């Protein structure tokens, strides 16, 4: 186990107190103007502007789904730097891929501007040749900078599609560099050669002529190590996986990760992804010294290690294994590059080991040792995510960055054109609106009169419906009270049946109370301040408490649109549907428990009334009876009404109505 001086922490430990900056997604070109009535009118009268904004929105959507382009500093191993004396031979960089591959793409990635320079010094003109033989006797030119043009200095990679051309050797020739006195110089960060989407250049050997080498900064081998200002080949939404971070006490501590492949495999390369530390200024790091050994036993020979350097870097470090065969892969890291307080940091975000186009350790968990002592393993080291983003194939990553360049160039040309069209269209719309406003002063009386007549007609219709309700509910109840009173009078005259008289008077009391409650319901239906879905649900609850006093009653409302306003017509028919459903339960069900659910289903509002009674009576056809009124109410609401009822198994009444048929403002639905 780890000693008390050494500990291992996960990504979440360092994130305490760090709040991600979350913002709303950017508005589209059309949405940005949607609140301006003049802008809306401008788009109606100018279809070309609408089409242009739709194109801009589509391009922005594509850009947001692509790998980001955000060049980052590369502190060491910057790439290859070429120098040519006046009249001297042109500098060349030649890659030997080890065998013949069908090449799909070649990417030339620019380096960052060197200290004291404002330009990237990417070759102004260059040529790319491929060949099957080392002397390039069968060379085929696959790219040459067009005449009268210079290569871009914006940092995007140059892509050359080689269309599966078979080759073993790739040569880059600098035709024109930047004049510096008696010499011209140029530099690139990476020459990435792909075959079937796999970076075969990472396991190649590089030679050059006209190199201007410099320690750990510039050398042909640094042009094929996978490290470039473009960073890590990853994309997609953010996630919580960050890798493994270990705190060490001593500068001599060594961390080892060992993978058991299960059987001996020929290996191409091992790649380690740096661990980003936004908590201490956005630094990203790997162990300063990285070694990899391939063996058939867990204890590799010391001379079998292949090494490279890491340190503070924003790019993966790749160790070419070039066909080494073994079952065990042992990776060791030493010389921590960073400190956090009193702790020394050793961290890796992801480890990949490739063989014939496959990552053999994807999803596996390595054994972790610190100075030979077991430490806690981390499954995040091989989960395909680095620093919170998905790792994608190198070919897809470079292609997305290259396509992003074309999209952003198109956006840069379309946005000024859109702005000009907006200005012209808004001027025209303003004149049109002024004319329209002037015309409205000529017909205000007609518009007012029409609205008055329509409103009066609606009020008359509402009055007729209210009169019908009063006649049906209150008139019927008062008629019953009259009949019962006449019967009670006769019983009083006879005085021979006091029990019957008591029953008549009790029934009169009940009907009178029901008439009063019905009157309250009608008054509530007309109340303007109680016409939201939430108010309706509260009325349903109080009505059920009144009618279902002898039963257990439960109501739940899971709608998230309770603040929306119901039309008077919808409010009336919904409430009468609900009351009729409760009356059916009282008349027919003999239930003990009743449950009412209100909830949303996409663009509809659902009302379900369920009881555990004996079920509804059925007609001669075997269908549930006593639901004609419910069916009629559902039809008025243009809703769907379903009945599930079986003898002894209770009844479920389900009403589904489009929210647009209920809500006063259709847009809110």
From TrEMBL:
Domain Histidine kinase/HSP90-like ATPase: from-to ranges: 572-659
Signal sequence region: none
Top-level EC class: transferase
Name the record gives this protein: histidine kinase
SUPFAM superfamilies assigned: ATPase domain of HSP90 chaperone/DNA topoisomerase II/histidine kinase (SSF55874)
Pfam family, one: HisKA_3
Keyword list, A-Z: ATP-binding, Kinase, Nucleotide-binding, Phosphoprotein, Transferase, Two-component regulatory system
Chemical reaction(s) catalysed: ATP + protein L-histidine = ADP + protein N-phospho-L-histidine
Coiled-coil region: none
Presence of the UniProt keyword Nucleus in the record: no
Claim: Ligase is one of the keywords in the record: no
Superkingdom: Bacteria
E.C. no: 2.7.13.3
Residues in Signal transduction histidine kinase subgroup 3 dimerisation and phosphoacceptor domain copies: 463-527
Organism in which the protein naturally occurs: Haloferula sargassicola
Database matches in InterPro entries: HATPase_C_sf (IPR036890), HATPase_dom (IPR003594), Sensor_HK_TwoCompSys (IPR050482), Sig_transdc_His_kin_sub3_dim/P (IPR011712)
């Amino acid at each position: 186990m780890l000693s008390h001086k050494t500990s291992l922490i996960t990504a979440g430990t360092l994130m305490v107190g760090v709040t991600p900056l979350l913002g709303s997604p950017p508005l589209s070109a059309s949405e940005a103007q949607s609140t301006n009535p003049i802008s809306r009118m401008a788009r109606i009268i100018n279809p070309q502007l609408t089409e242009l904004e739709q194109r801009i929105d589509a391009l922005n959507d594509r850009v947001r789904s692509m790998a980001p382009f955000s060049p980052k500093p590369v502190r060491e191993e910057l790439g290859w730097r070429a120098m040519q004396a006046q009249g001297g031979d042109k500098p060349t960089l030649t890659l030997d891929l080890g065998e013949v591959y069908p090449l799909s793409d070649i990417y030339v990635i620019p380096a960052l501007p060197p200290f004291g320079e404002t330009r990237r010094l990417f070759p102004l003109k260059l040529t790319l040749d491929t060949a099957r033989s080392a002397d390039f006797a069968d060379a085929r030119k696959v790219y040459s900078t067009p005449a009268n043009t210079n290569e871009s200095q914006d940092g995007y990679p140059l892509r050359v599609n080689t269309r599966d051309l078979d080759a073993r050797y790739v040569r880059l020739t600098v035709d024109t560099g930047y004049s510096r006195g008696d010499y011209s110089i140029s530099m690139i960060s990476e020459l990435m050669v792909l075959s079937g989407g796999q970076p075969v250049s990472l396991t190649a050997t590089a030679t050059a002529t006209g190199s201007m080498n410099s320690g750990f900064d510039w050398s042909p081998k640094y042009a094929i190590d996978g490290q470039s200002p473009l960073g890590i080949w990853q994309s997609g939404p953010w996630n919580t996986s960050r890798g493994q971070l270990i705190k060490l006490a001593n500068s001599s501590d060594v961390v080892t990760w060992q993978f058991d492949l299960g059987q001996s495999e020929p290996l191409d390369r091992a790649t380690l992804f740096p661990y980003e530390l936004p908590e201490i200024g956005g630094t990203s790091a790997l162990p300063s010294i990285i070694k990899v050994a391939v063996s058939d036993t867990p204890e590799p020979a010391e001379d079998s290690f292949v090494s490279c350097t890491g340190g503070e870097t924003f790019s993966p470090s790749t160790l070419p294994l070039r066909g080494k065969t073994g079952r065990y892969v042992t990776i060791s890291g030493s010389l921590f590059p960073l400190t956090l307080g009193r702790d020394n940091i050793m961290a890796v975000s992801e480890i990949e080991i490739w063989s014939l186009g496959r990552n053999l350790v994807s999803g596996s968990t390595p054994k972790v040792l610190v100075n030979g002592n077991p430490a806690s393993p981390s499954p995040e080291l091989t989960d395909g995510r680095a620093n919170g983003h998905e790792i994608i194939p190198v070919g897809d990553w470079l292609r997305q960055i290259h396509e992003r360049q074309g999209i952003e160039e198109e956006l840069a040309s379309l946005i000024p054109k859109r702005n000009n069209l907006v200005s012209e269209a808004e001027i025209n719309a303003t004149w049109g609106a002024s004319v329209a406003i002037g015309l409205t002063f000529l017909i205000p009386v007609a518009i007012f009169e029409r609205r008055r007549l329509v409103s009066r007609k609606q009020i008359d219709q509402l009055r007729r419906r209210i009169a019908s309700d009063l006649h049906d509910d209150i008139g019927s109840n008062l008629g019953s009270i009259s009949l019962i009173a006449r019967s009670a009078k006769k019983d009083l005259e006879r005085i021979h049946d006091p029990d019957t008289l008591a029953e008549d008077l009790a029934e009169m009391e009940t009907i009178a109370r029901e008439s009063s409650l019905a009157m309250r319901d009608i008054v509530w239906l007309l109340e303007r301040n109680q016409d939201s879905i939430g108010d309706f649900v509260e009325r349903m609850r109080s009505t059920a408490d009144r009618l279902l006093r002898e039963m257990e009653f439960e109501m739940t409302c899971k709608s998230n649109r309770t603040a929306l306003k119901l039309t008077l017509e919808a409010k009336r028919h919904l409430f009468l549907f609900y009351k009729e459903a409760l009356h059916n339960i009282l008349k027919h069900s003999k239930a003990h428990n009743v449950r009412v659910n209100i909830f949303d289903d996409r663009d509809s509002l659902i009302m379900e009334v369920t009881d555990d009674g004996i079920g509804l009576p059925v007609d001669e056809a075997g269908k549930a009876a006593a639901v004609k009124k419910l069916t009629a109410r559902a039809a008025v609401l243009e809703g769907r009404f379903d009945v599930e009822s079986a003898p002894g198994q209770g009844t479920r009444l389900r009403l589904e109505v489009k929210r647009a048929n209920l809500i006063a403002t259709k847009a809110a639905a």
